[in-house]
Specification:
CATH topology of the largest domain: Quinone Oxidoreductase, Chain A, domain 1
Largest sheet: 7 strands, mixed
Distance between the termini: 16 Å
Mean pLDDT: 94
Structural class: alpha/beta
CATH class of the largest domain: Alpha Beta
Helix content: 25-40%
Low-confidence stretches: none
CATH architecture of the largest domain: Alpha-Beta Complex
CATH superfamily of the largest domain: Medium-chain alcohol dehydrogenases, catalytic domain
C-alpha cells in the first residue's frame, strides 16, 4: 500500500484526497520510483476541473513530473537500475501514469538520470518547462542569435524556461507579463525587455522593440484579444506558436497580418517531442547540457509538503507564483 492523490469528482482543489492504494509491480518496460518531489503544472488543475485535453477516469490520479529513486524495474528495462536517482519526462497520459504519490510507475524511456548538481526539487521542476520551451523555440521555430522572440505569460515556469533557453542561444527576449509587479524578477532571469500588458500599449511597445525587422517568433499560452497586437508586431515570415488558451475571451484570427506578412500560426503540445524518440533525445541532450552548465536553472516559487496538496493547488491557481511550485515527500 502507498499514499496517492486522487479525486472522485471534478472540481476545485478541495476535491483532491490522499488515499491508500495498492501499487502493482512495474510491467514490461516500466519503472517504479520512490518519489522525492513533484513538480506542479497547470495541466493538472485543468484535468481536476474537467477542462484538460485528457479526460479523467474517476476516481483519477494526476501529475506529470516527479523525481525520486528507482525501486523496481519491469522486464526488458535497460539503462536504469534500482537505486538510481532519476527525474521523469512528462508522460503522454497522466491518467495512465499519474505522478502524485509516494510511489509512482512510468515508462522506462521517460527516466532521466539528472545531473548531480540538481536537488530533488529542481529535478522535479525541470522537464515540463524546458521540454515545452525547447520543442517550440529550438525544434520548431529554429530560434537564432539575431532573432527577437516574444514570450507571453512570462512569469510562469514555462515562460521563465523560454527566457533562459532563448538567452543561451543569444536571442533578444521580450517578456510580456500582466503588471509590473514581476518586472525586475523577469530581468533577473534574463529578459532583455519586459512589457506590462495591462499598463502599457502592447502593440506600440513591441513595434518599438522589434524595429524595422519586427519580431520573428512569438511563444504564447494565452490567446485572446492580444493576439492581434502580437501578430501586428511580427516580421514577414514570422511564426507564432500557441501552446495554451488561458484567456477567457475570444481569440480573433489576425487575418490581415497573416496574409500581408505570410505568418505561420501554429498550435503546439509538448507531446509532439515526447512521442518522437529522436526529437526527445535531442531535447534531453540540450537541456541536460544547460542544466549541467547552470545556463538553465529551474526557479522554485514555493514548496509544499505532500499533505498540503490542496493548498499547493490553491496557490497554483492564484497566479501569484513566479516559477515552479514543488511538492516534497
Amino acid at each position: 500500500m502507498t499514499r496517492v492523490v486522487r479525486f472522485h469528482e471534478l472540481g476545485g482543489p478541495e476535491v483532491l484526497r490522499i488515499e491508500d492504494v495498492t501499487v502493482p509491480a512495474p510491467g514490461r518496460g516500466e519503472v517504479r520510483i520512490r518519489v522525492k518531489a513533484l513538480g506542479l503544472n497547470r495541466a493538472e488543475a485543468l484535468l481536476r476541473s474537467g477542462s484538460y485535453i485528457e479526460e479523467a477516469k474517476l476516481p483519477s490520479g494526476l501529475g506529470l513530473e516527479a523525481s525520486g529513486i528507482v525501486e523496481a524495474v519491469g522486464d526488458g528495462v535497460v539503462g536504469v537500475v534500482p537505486g538510481d536517482a532519476v527525474s521523469v519526462v512528462p508522460p503522454l497520459s497522466m491518467v495512465r501514469w499519474p505522478a502524485y504519490g509516494e510511489i509512482a510507475t512510468f515508462p522506462a524511456e521517460l527516466m532521466v538520470r539528472h545531473p548531480s548538481s540538481l536537488g530533488w526539487e529542481e529535478a522535479a521542476a525541470a522537464w515540463m518547462q524546458y521540454l515545452t520551451a525547447y520543442g517550440a523555440l529550438v525544434d520548431i521555430a529554429g530560434l537564432r542569435q539575431d532573432d527577437v522572440v516574444v514570450v507571453t505569460a512570462a512569469s510562469s515556469s514555462v515562460g521563465i524556461a523560454a527566457i533562459q533557453l532563448a538567452r543561451t542561444i543569444g536571442a533578444t527576449v521580450v517578456a510580456v507579463t500582466r503588471t509590473s509587479a514581476k518586472k525586475q524578477a523577469l530581468f533577473d532571469v534574463g529578459a532583455t525587455h519586459v512589457v506590462a500588458s495591462a499598463e502599457e500599449d502592447l502593440a506600440a511597445r513591441l513595434r518599438d522593440i522589434g524595429g524595422a525587422e519586427g519580431v520573428r517568433v512569438v511563444f504564447d499560452p494565452v490567446g485572446g484579444p492580444a493576439i492581434e497586437a502580437l501578430a501586428a508586431a511580427m516580421s514577414p515570415g514570422g511564426i507564432l506558436i500557441a501552446y495554451g488558451a488561458l484567456s477567457r475571451e475570444q481569440t480573433p484570427f489576425p487575418l490581415l497580418a497573416v496574409l500581408s506578412k505570410s505568418l505561420t500560426l501554429r498550435g503546439y503540445l509538448v507531446h509532439e517531442v515526447v512521442r518522437d524518440r529522436s526529437r526527445l533525445e535531442a531535447a534531453k541532450a540540450f537541456i541536460l547540457d544547460g542544466l549541467g552548465s547552470g545556463a538553465l536553472k529551474p526557479v522554485i516559487a514555493r514548496t509544499f509538503a505532500f499533505d498540503e496538496i490542496v493548498e499547493a493547488h490553491r496557490f497554483l491557481e492564484s497566479n501569484d507564483q513566479f516559477g515552479k511550485i514543488v511538492v516534497t515527500l
